[in-house]
Structures are given as C-alpha cells and as structure tokens.
Specification:
Radius of gyration: 27 Å
Strand order of the largest sheet: 5-7-6
Distance between the termini: 64 Å
Helix content: 55-70%
Number of helices: 27
Length: 719
C-alpha cells in the first residue's frame, strides 16, 4: 500500500470513529470502540510518516474540491517527520481515552471521540497541505477542536470562559495566517505553498513576521501564551495530552515549513524571536515552579518547552541570515530533539496527572502528597516524564537540552554585534530556565510520587480501575522517554532525513562524531554519548551498591528507628511537614522581580476582587494566578487554585479573638501589563453599546433609519 493510500485510509478511519461516537449506544462495552478505531488511524499515520521520512512519500490529488485551483496532499520528508511523531504519540493518547471512557462511568461519552477524531484529522491535513486553503482548513479544524475540548465539560464552572479564551487566540492565529497568505499569494499569483519561494522585498518580510507570530500563538510563546494554562487545564482527561503533545506541534511544523519556503528572514526577526523565546522559557518555568494546581504546573511547563523549541528554531534563523548552514542545521536539530522529548514527556505527564486527578479528586499539590505511590503505573509515567522535562541523564530531555546549550555557545562564530549580544543574553536566560526546570520537577517527583501520604477525607471510596489499556497508555510514552534517548544516534539519522527539505541531511549528520557519539554538528567542540551513558550509569550504580553492601557487612540494609527530624522529613505528620507550597516559596522570592511576588496581611473578611475582575475574560478559576485577588479561604474547588498560599493566624479568645490572613501571590506580567489595560477600554465600549439595547421596537427602527440616512449621505458625498 502506498503512502498516500495509508493516509487516505487513516482519514477515513477518523471519519468512521467520529460517526461511531455519535451512532453507537452509550453502553460500557461500546464507549471505547471509537477510540480504538482512532488508535488504528494513529498507527496508519505513523507508518505513512515513516515511509515519507525515508523518501517514499506520495501525493493525493484533491482536484478543485477546495476551490481556487487544484489542491493536493503531499507527504514529503518534513511532513513525514511530523506525521511519524503525531502517530506514535497519538497511539498512547487514544488508548488513554479508551481506558478513561470505559472505566469512568461519570465521563460524558457522546461526541467526545468525534472531537478527538477532528483534532487528529486536522493535524494530518495541516501536515500534508500543499495549498493555502487546505492548510487553513486543517488549521481552523484544529482550532475548533481546541474550543470543543476546552469547553466540553460545560457542567464545570468557567469551562466556557476557558474555551472562549482558547478559541479567541486560535482565531487570532488563523487571522494572521490569512493575512500572510494573502500577501504571498498577491505577490506570487499562486495559492500553492511551494510557489511562495519567489516572494521578496517588504511583502516577504511582513509575511514572514506574520507567519511566525501566528505559529508561535499555537505553542504558547509570549505574549500569546495566556490561553494555554486555561485551555489545557479545562480540557477533559487525556485531551490535555492530545492538545499539548500532538496538536500543538503543527505550530512548529509551520515554522520549519516557513524557513523551507521563504528562506532566510531579516536579521531583526531572528533577534526578536530568540529573545522572546528565551524570555518565554524563563517565564513559563518560573510560573510552573510556584503553581499549586498540578495541571497548571504541567501546562506552564508547556510554555517553557515552547520557548526552548522556538529558541532552537531562532538559532537556525540566525544561521540562515548569516549563511552558516551548519548553525542552521544545529538549530533545527536542537529544536527537533526538544520537540520529540516534549511530546513523549508531556503525553506521559498529562495522562498520569489525569489518572491521579481521577483517583484522588484533587489537583492541589498539597493534597496530592504520595498520590503516585498508590498508583504505580501513573507514578512511574509521571516520574519519568518529569525527569525528562527536567533534562536529567538517561532521558530524551538531557540530550535535547545539552544540544540547546551547545547551540547558544556557538556565538563566537558570528560576526554581527547584534547577534552576538542576543546569543549571550538568550543563553543566560535559557540556562537559568533549564536550571529552574530541575528544581520544579524535583518538587513534583519528590512530593507527588515519593512523598508520604496525606489524609484525604474527600478521596473517592472506590476509584475506577485503570485496566490494561490504561496501563499501556501510561507506560508507552514513559518507555519512549528512556528508550529513544538510548538510541539517540538513530533518532538523529531519522531527524536528518526529515529536515532534508530545509537543510541537507549530510550537514545535519555532522552531529554524529562516530556511530554512537554525538557532537553539536561542529567537529571537535564537545561530545556526548547517551547510548554509552545508558549502559555505564546502571552498571556503575550496581557496582557502587555492591561494594557498599560488602564494605558495610550487611548494615547497609539494616533498619534504624530514630525520632523524626522536625524540619522537613516525611516522618513529620500533619501541617508541620514540608509541603509543595513551602518548597516553592524560595522561588517566589528569588524570582520576585519576574513574578512580581506580593506578600502581606489582609483582613480575613475582606474581598478585594472587584466587579471588573469578575467580568474580565481572564477572571475566574481558569485565569492565570496573578490576577485572582487575595481571598480569605485557603481551599477552593478543584481547578481554582492560584499560585498563592495563605497562613491563617488566630489569637485571643471570645469577643477579643483576632483573625488575620497572610498571603503570598504572584502576577502574570503579560496579563497585568498588556491584556488587562487593553480590555478596559473595550469593556467601556461594550457597556455603552448595551445601553442601546432597550428592547423597544420603535428604538430599533430609529437605529435603522439613522444608519440608512448615514449610508445615503456617504454615497452622495462620494458620487
């Protein structure tokens, strides 16, 4: 079967799964059937992508069905790379959906699989599009799917608000794409993407900038990242993994395809993008480090990884502007490695956090102490995903982040002062972000997986069973985080073939110093062998433990019982123990200039959040933490946990009793200083327009008469 035929069958299977989700009865046995069909579709997409990456692509002629000339679906090596990643990661995600729908009777079943099918089909269409209209059709399909996923559980408060915020930014990216495509089509006279390589001049530069802004909106680069924590947090169950680890990659695909078609950008664009990406990575991990809501921690980590991946791409742009092919190859390879690591790790983490939330009914880190120990599969997937995102050895994250740091160290090869300063500043920010990522995920693993159990009065008495499908869904991406790292040279060969339309494969393969040793494309700069580390570190660990056991004459395994240290150990019970909030408190102060940390005493009966905040589209449980004002209560509903903590102190007795609340809070810079000031005048306009809605028919007729007279006056004046 040809590659085109495989992809056509995959799209047909997606359509069949969507139809089945609506037509099949909502019995337990039938609930998982559409998701199992989508698993088959994902496997077909992965196989087709592998064939395309290896040079056995194909085309599917759509004729004039889309209008505006002939349209085709084309699977070249670059599309094949993304198709393979999409299919491989979508397999455990769809299995997770199947297990989740089968074993949780409280989950609304109808039409959710249709939305998942729409997401997968939309991603495939974007990756295969050879014309502007097919691309926009696929892009808008994914945008609609994001809206439906974020607002699917409308029975939960403020899900509609999160859905509208998600859809608003998705439509903004679509509008920017439409303008950029119009500029390129107007200059070249063609709607085919490949024909736009003839664009030049101001239209080329303007379209380049618009395209990058549109694509970075999908992956959460500042200042377009504010929808991402709300949208991911509102999506149901494994849908978070689908959005973050599968669908969001079309933004990166758009960036790389732009470089292939339009070539080198203006230097200023590479500078702005690199600085913005570095700031995004630092801001994202700073907010992830201080969140209390587990889902928001993982979502803000996606913001950080979006910044890291975009930084690698910006380095490639710098190489393109200076004519250094090896720097371009290094930047794209770095970006690809980080994207693969993020996809595997984020699918594992979102699936695991969804399971922990399902079992405990909690999202507050302070209430999830030791939750991973009660769910071994979820705990393993969570820990491996967290260690990958922290960039620790033996994981994909270690390899990708090593390449990123090596890439920014190549600044001495540049000659322009602007690029030299940019690389230096961005390198410092990226190094700081990577360092804080380790601190952030140490907190998650140490508290959620390894921490002692905390008593939970509201824990479900009989949590739904995980099942074999759920276990496979959790362990497949976790295994990928380690297994792919062990065979990194093979991964680089695969990525080099996929990147061949943008940069020659031979240049990218300069990253192989020898069959099992890696280098940052440039020879004799540095070297790393993840494959040998995968062998040596476990062997050395066994040798050290063996020698220690022999030297200690068995006392290594002896149990010694002593009174618990009253500072931070798990032996301390109750509120005196170290908590995730306390662990993150130093970060709030060390990064206080970035987080704008606020701390102080507020009256327990005060309510400082104003009516303006309640009406804001950024207000409510799904808005970022900084704009939820101080509240007297410490606990709220699941999903309504900002990154602040409160300490309540009481003194005195009877009528003389005093009660005070000490609160620590952080501020989302982009919201506080960009979006809220912009929304204020818009709100005033809307309020004024509401006054015109009197409900009186004669008033509406009067409005129509005034409009008609005004139009006649304009026409007469122009004639």
């Amino acid at each position: 079967m040809t590659t085109a035929a495989l992809l056509l069958v995959a799209l047909c299977v997606c359509a069949g799964a969507a139809a089945a989700s609506v037509a099949l009865p909502a019995r337990r046995a039938a609930r998982s059937s559409p998701y199992l069909l989508l698993t088959v579709a994902a496997l077909l997409v992965a196989v087709a992508g592998l064939r395309a990456d290896l040079g056995h692509g194909g085309t599917l002629d759509l004729g004039t069905v889309m209008g505006f000339g002939r349209s085709t679906l084309r699977a070249d090596p670059l599309a094949g790379l993304f198709l393979t990643l999409t299919g491989v990661v979508a397999v455990p995600v769809t299995l997770g959906f199947a297990a989740w729908s089968r074993h949780d009777p409280d989950v609304p079943f109808r039409a959710l699989a249709a939305v998942v099918a729409l997401t997968l089909a939309g991603v495939v269409l974007v990756l295969l599009a050879d014309s502007a209209y097919v691309f926009l059709f696929g892009w808008e399909s994914v945008s609609v799917a994001f809206y439906l996923l974020a607002g699917y559980r409308r029975d939960i408060p403020d899900r509609s608000r999160a859905a509208m915020l998600t859809y608003g930014f998705s439509k903004t990216s679509g509008a920017l794409l439409l303008v950029a495509f119009g500029l390129l089509a107007g200059q070249t006279g063609s709607f085919r993407l490949a024909d736009w390589s003839a664009a030049s001049g101001a239209s080329h530069d303007a379209a380049y900038a618009l395209l990058l802004v549109a694509f970075t909106a999908k992956v959460g680069v500042v200042p377009l990242q504010v929808w991402l924590p709300a949208g991911y947090g509102a999506a149901p169950g494994p849908a978070r993994a689908l959005m973050s680890a599968v669908a969001a990659n079309i933004g990166f695909y758009g960036m790389w395809r732009t470089l292939e078609i339009l070539g080198a950008p203006p230097t200023w664009l590479a500078v702005v993008l690199l600085l913005t990406a570095a700031f995004t990575a630092l801001l994202g991990i700073a907010h992830a480090a201080v969140q209390r809501d587990l889902q928001r921690v993982v979502a803000y980590s996606s913001v950080e990884n979006g910044g890291l991946i975009t930084a690698g791409y910006a380095i490639a742009l710098a190489g393109a502007t200076t004519g250094q092919a090896r720097l371009t190859a290094l930047g794209l390879l770095t970006s690809a490695l980080q994207m693969v690591a993020h996809s595997f790790a984020k699918s594992a983490m979102f699936l695991a956090t969804g399971r922990l939330e399902q079992v405990t009914g909690q999202r507050d880190l302070d209430e999830l102490l030791g939750a991973g120990r009660a769910e071994p599969a979820a705990g393993v997937a969570f820990a491996v995903g967290a260690l990958t995102l922290a960039g620790l050895p033996l994981t994909l994250g270690f390899v990708s982040e090593w390449f990123l740091l090596e890439a920014v160290m190549q600044l001495f090869r540049l000659r322009e002062l602007t690029l030299l300063v940019t690389f230096a500043v961005a390198g410092a920010a990226l190094a700081l972000a990577i360092g804080y990522a380790g601190l952030t995920f140490v907190r998650l693993v140490g508290m959620t997986v390894l921490g002692g159990d905390r008593h939970r009065d509201d824990q479900p008495a009989a949590p739904p069973a995980l099942g074999m499908l759920g276990t496979f869904a959790l362990l497949i991406p976790a295994a990928g985080c380690v297994a792919v790292a062990a065979v990194s040279p093979w991964e680089i060969r695969f990525l080099a073939d996929g990147l061949a339309p943008v940069v020659p494969a031979g240049t990218t393969l300069g990253a192989l110093a020898s069959p099992w040793v890696l280098q940052p494309v440039y020879a004799d700069f540095s070297a790393l062998s993840p494959s040998w580390l995968a062998v040596e570190l476990p062997v050395l660990a066994v040798v050290v433990l063996g020698l220690t056991a022999v030297a200690s004459q068995g006392s290594l395994f002896a149990v010694r019982r002593v009174p618990a240290w009253r500072s931070a150990t798990n032996g301390v019970a109750g509120d005196a123990r170290y908590t995730p909030f306390a662990f993150a408190n130093p970060t709030r102060h060390v990064l206080g200039n970035l987080l704008l940390t606020r701390a102080g005493r507020v009256d327990a009966n005060d309510r400082l959040d104003s009516q303006d905040d309640a009406d804001s589209p950024f207000a409510g449980p799904d808005m970022p933490e900084g704009e939820q004002r101080h509240r007297s209560q410490h606990r709220t509903e699941p999903g309504d946990m900002p990154a602040k903590g409160t300490l309540e102190v009481s003194s005195g007795t009877g009528a003389a009793r005093h009660h005070a609340v000490y609160s620590t809070d952080v501020v989302e810079l982009v919201e506080a200083f960009l979006y809220r000031p912009a929304i204020a005048p818009l709100r005033r306009v809307v309020t004024a327009a509401k006054r015109l809605q009197s409900g009186r028919l004669d008033a509406y007729i009067g409005y129509m008469l005034v409009t008609l007279v005004a139009l006649i006056a304009v026409v007469v004046a122009m004639s």
